[in-house]
TrEMBL record:
It comes from Arabidopsis suecica (Swedish thale-cress). NCBIfam families: laccase (TIGR03389). Residues 1-25 form the signal peptide. Residues 35-147, 160-309, 419-553 form the Plastocyanin-like domain. Its EC number is 1.10.3.2. CDD domains: CuRO_1_LCC_plant, CuRO_2_LCC_plant, CuRO_3_LCC_plant. This is laccase. It holds the Pfam family Cu-oxidase_3.
Length: 570
């Protein structure tokens, strides 16, 4: 009887804790109105596509365990969808957002409500358009705080500062895309980088809009850095100040100090910064890390970290003192980029799969499509070709009559095939002098099936076709562990012995070392259709993508939930 009372008491306490958790979770209801608004940058005003008239868009602030219902109302002239980058969307691919993968796009004049829950995630993520190049201006931060009463694994500052790095074109980005699609050549590079939507002091007509962040001497702040740029990895630094890295892609890390970070498109990095320098004004700046033999935007965006007690100039020319400029790595400094990435470690022992059920090897890189008439205006790529990109020589083509997930759920044939190859169809010296006969990929809409709860390992191998390059690869619906990386060709006999299976960093987007490889592992515990693609949007449009179809497990809690009634139709 005494043991029964004890059991009842413990059960009662557990029930109270459960109800307290439910009471602490919030339900967030918002509208995102997609609409053109005048935005002036670099001396010119453009009718840019915005969310609620804001550029960048609104910051979403939630807690682990909260649920969201965000109604996207499309008042623009383009089809659109919104992706909640890094949110796992457990059993709910319908809220993931990539057009023609998990939904048909929201057409002009229509709306769709994304309903999803934050489940066991906290940290810095972001949201963005997942329709062609609309994400150039349609993006914003998504900040997830821990559940009430749950501490951070580090001393949390009292103040957060979101830092959104972006790219700006001095014309309609959709026109830039259309021109590239017509000619088959590379898209024109951007005209500026931005910090929170502003280019900064070094660009024409931009000094007045330069973002300024006031800070008190001795204060420690957390910078939540998001690379929302379309096509460029970036170095980021603050003059004379050190960063303490504490999180990447909403996963805590073992803290370490650095004066510069390298961050790829799609990635987030949280750093602590302490105002321990002489009171003054200090530039924070971002410039390109360009690993490819290709044109790039070689400009620098700036904002100003300004001590509240910064002195002013006296006498003639009185006013604020000039900001100090940081030392940034050279644009091709792969050694610094690699050294930063290699220091990342999960904050404790990671639950990384020790055994592997699916051992996949994917080449990732560019290619060229030969033209029957090389002199055609539609064949303006190298030597009269059209640019392409592929994984395992398969160049992904988006369907148009239905989304992959809807066709999969409905059992509709003819939309995609499930014969994406687990290894390259032809083995070759991936980072050597590749025969031109291997430069042209095969186009198709191909997926690869995974059993529910399979332990998956993927080695992503860059190639030297056209040019070696750092490709930031993003996997929807999952976080994964980066267990190893290196330069040259992956050696399956010797390289796995060097894998870190104790505390590898957890991410949702990881770059392939240029002319090298990276290995990731995850458990396929989220059923649905999940896009894997390069987060350089030029490469995505050329076909550097594929889809995983993760099968249902047993019962309702291991199966994809039914689609919502307002899911857009093609």
């Amino acid at each position: 009887m005494e043991s029964l009372r004890r059991f009842s008491f413990v059960s009662f306490i557990a029930l109270l804790a459960y109800f307290a958790f439910l009471a602490s979770a919030e339900h967030h209801v918002q509208q995102f109105v997609i609409q053109p608004r005048p935005v002036k940058r670099l001396c010119r005003t453009h009718q840019s596509i915005t969310v609620n008239g804001q550029f960048p868009g609104p910051t979403l602030i939630v807690r682990n365990g909260d649920s969201l219902a965000i109604t996207v109302i499309n008042r623009a002239r383009y089809n659109i969808s919104i992706h909640w980058h890094g949110i796992r969307q457990l059993r709910n691919p319908w809220a993931d957002g990539p057009e023609y993968i998990t939904q048909c796009p929201i057409r002009p004049g229509q709306s769709y409500t994304y309903r999803f829950k934050i489940e066991d995630q906290e940290g810095t993520l972001w949201w963005h358009a997942h329709s062609r190049w609309l994400r150039a201006t349609v993006y914003g931060a998504l900040i997830i705080y821990p559940r009430l009463g749950v501490p951070y694994p580090f001393s949390m500052p009292k103040r957060d500062i979101p830092i959104l790095l972006g790219e700006w074109w001095d014309r309609n980005p959709m026109d830039v895309l259309r021109q590239a699609q017509f000619t088959g050549a590379a898209a024109n590079v951007s005209d500026a980088y931005t910090i929170n939507g502003q280019p900064g002091d070094l660009y024409r007509c931009s000094r007045a809009g330069t973002i300024r962040f006031p800070i008190f001497p001795g204060e420690t702040v957390q910078l939540r850095v998001i690379n929302a740029a379309m096509n460029q990895e970036l170095f980021f630094s603050v003059a004379n100040h050190q960063f303490t890295v504490v999180e990447t892609d909403s996963a805590y890390t073992k803290p370490f100090t650095t004066s510069v970070i390298m961050i790829g498109p799609g990635q987030t990095t949280n750093v602590l910064l302490t105002a321990n320098q002489r009171p003054g004004r200090y530039y924070m700046a971002a410039r390109a890390y360009n690993s490819a033999n290709a044109p790039f935007d070689n400009t620098t965006t700036t904002a100003i970290l300004q001590y509240v007690n910064a002195p002013t100039r006296r006498g003639r020319g009185r006013g604020q003192i000039a900001p100090v400029f940081p030392v940034l790595p050279g644009f091709n400094d792969t050694a610094t980029a690699t050294a930063f990435t290699n220091r990342l470690r999960y904050w404790k022992r990671a639950p990384v799969p020790q055994q592997v059920d699916e051992n996949l090897f994917f080449t990732v890189g560019l290619g060229l499509i030969n033209c029957s008439n090389p002199n055609s205006p539609r064949c303006q790529g190298p030597n009269g070709t059209r640019f392409a990109a592929s994984m395992n020589n398969m160049s992904f083509v988006l369907p148009r009559s239905n989304s992959v997930m809807q066709a999969y759920y409905q059992g509709m044939p003819g939309i995609f095939t499930t014969d994406f190859p687990p290894v390259p169809p032809v083995q070759f010296d991936y980072t050597g002098n590749v025969s031109r006969g291997l430069w042209q990929p095969i186009k198709g809409t191909k997926a690869y099936k995974l059993k529910y709860k399979a332990n998956v390992q993927i080695v992503l191998q860059d190639t030297s076709i056209v040019t070696p390059e750092n490709h930031p690869m993003h996997l929807h619906g999952y976080q994964f562990y980066v267990v190893g990386s290196g330069f040259g060709n992956f050696n399956p006999r010797t390289d796995p012995a060097r894998f870190n299976l104790f505390d590898p960093p957890e991410r949702n987007t990881i770059g392939t070392p240029p002319g090298g490889w990276v290995a990731i592992r995850f458990v396929a515990d989220n059923p649905g259709a999940w896009f894997m693609h390069c987060h350089i949007d030029s490469h995505l449009g050329w076909g550097l993508a594929m889809v995983f179809l993760v099968e249902n497990g047993r019962g309702r809690l291991q199966s994809v939930q039914a689609p919502p009634l307002d899911l857009p139709r093609c």
